[in-house]
């Protein structure tokens, strides 16, 4: 009977004691119930960025005139519940502290650690440009684009983390692209379709260790129109990309070879090029991108030339060159 | 009567002969020595000879002009800059091999020539024919050169080492030793000491002697980058530019560290040396020029605007940039249309003082120049550049500018 009674007491009270112990561990102390909460803007500061901080106390009245802000131990503000400061380069580390007294005379303090981090996002449209082109390939409808993240994230020791030490979380249209997110996955392929789509993406980069700052970045690529430019393809000098032909052009000798260069067409499918001479269709070379005009009779006059490019796989992609008046013979 | 006429004719002939003799005497120093080989090869000649207004001026080029030297600098002795055309046909790349000698590659043949800026003579250095050289980049004081060609839109790169004729050879031209580099090297830059190259292939950058270079010393994020050596240990990397997109500039050290210097600048194009980065920015369809001080991190606007690729740094007695400066910049999408060859500028040649931001016009040519790849001689007395309009080679005398 005694044993049974003891067991009953244990059964009823021990769990209550254990639960109470856990609860006591997680429960704030009576004072910490009214602790500071520091809010940073931006939440994840980038290197050399100005940061605003605000301290709030819930459930008690803070005497603002008692508030003191410190950054790495140096006082940076007094008598106010907000402050601002500029963080340094990548690898710098800041401990922001705030201390103040409540109306009931209790003094509170709080600190937070800031490690500046950022991520740059580049994009590269998978569209055509000529060799040696120093400009950027631009995105057009029905083309693919690759976004690249270049993170600048350091650990608590100030050591820069490599891509394999970081997890990349790519989002488009508000949802996470699971297949393209993960450790070391610093690029993201976006296919734009027939219908107008947003090219906006967001990436979050965080240490795989779970310790350290998170960097966030957003980018969107504007849509451009495909273009078609014509250059002289000299048998001696090669294609003269330095000078796109437009309006009128004098035949330098007895013949000229022109080259059509499609800009910003999707690389996924071939571009079809056709030539028009005085509005009549004429054939170019095997690929269609070059054509030779020859003044066989040594006659003189003018000819109107233009070229068109289309992409059968991507019906939104077509372009027409400027109309070129080719002047030949003695004028 | 007949005797008098005969004497008169003889006197007239004598006067003509004397006048001709005087003319030859006073102009022989400026005569070009155009050898037959050069003319045959369509190689370089001095297309314009400065005969003080002589009618012997060929259609290309221009001699002394109404140069607009800085009139605010009272202490400078004014010697008008003289603009001269070195070639009448396209070249692939040029360099100074001495303060007064320029070495260049003929684009059509790949032949190499030396042009003497004092005697106006030109001589062939290599007659190894390599057709259609789109780019030529010089190393090792002109004894090494990288050629880039196109083969079905594949970029082919060859390193050519020029060596003196061996043994008892009586040839005057140099022998070439070629090294073929991997396909599709999309961008190349030469180190300031001209001993090393940086080659960008896909996203890999290889650095070293082109005759014996590895595959990758560091990797970039993405492929669309342009390289620019800062000094022997650091390379500046700029994203390819468009008016529609923000650009970035990073400094990569060969020891592995990366520093972001230019962040999210629309239409960003750059030109960097150890102390400054010149960069242009596009706002709307207008471009602006600024100087980023790499030591202090300060950015200073410069006016008038130009593309940094039209500039070369001069560090004699201060920090300067000599630039081609468009007389007018139209309202067009830049730099895209300039790179595409749709827009071509009409440049003056000017000097920016990067410390005071003062701008001085050095020369206002009467003809159309769209200046690219400028470079100065080591004594800063000559500016060498290519006219993008026809890819011909030019020089401007900068004597007494610095």
Q: Spans of chain A with pLDDT under 50 lasting ≥5 residues?
A: 1-33
CATH superfamily of the largest domain in chain A: Immunoglobulins
Shape of chain B: globular
For the record, the CATH architecture of the largest domain in chain A stands as: Sandwich
H and E string of chain A? HEEEEEEEEEEEEEEEEEEEEEEEEE
Structural shape of chain A:
elongated
On the 0 to 100 scale, the average pLDDT of chain A is 86
Strand coverage percent of chain A: over 45%
What is the arithmetic mean of pLDDT of chain B?
84
Q: What count of helical segments of chain A does DSSP give?
A: 1
Measured between the Cα atoms of the first and last residue of chain A, the distance is: 128 Å
**Integer-rounded radius of gyration of chain B:** 24 Å
The largest sheet of chain B, given as strand count, sense and whether it forms a barrel, is: 4 strands, antiparallel
Give the biggest sheet of chain A: 6 strands, mixed
Roughly how many Å apart are the termini of chain B? 66 Å
DSSP strand content of chain B: 35-45%
So what's the oligomer here?
heterodimer
Question: Given this structure, which CATH class of the largest domain in chain A is correct?
Answer: Mainly Beta
CATH topology of the largest domain in chain A: Immunoglobulin-like
Uncertain runs of chain B with pLDDT below 50, 5 residues or more?
A: 23-80
Residue share in helices of chain B? under 10%
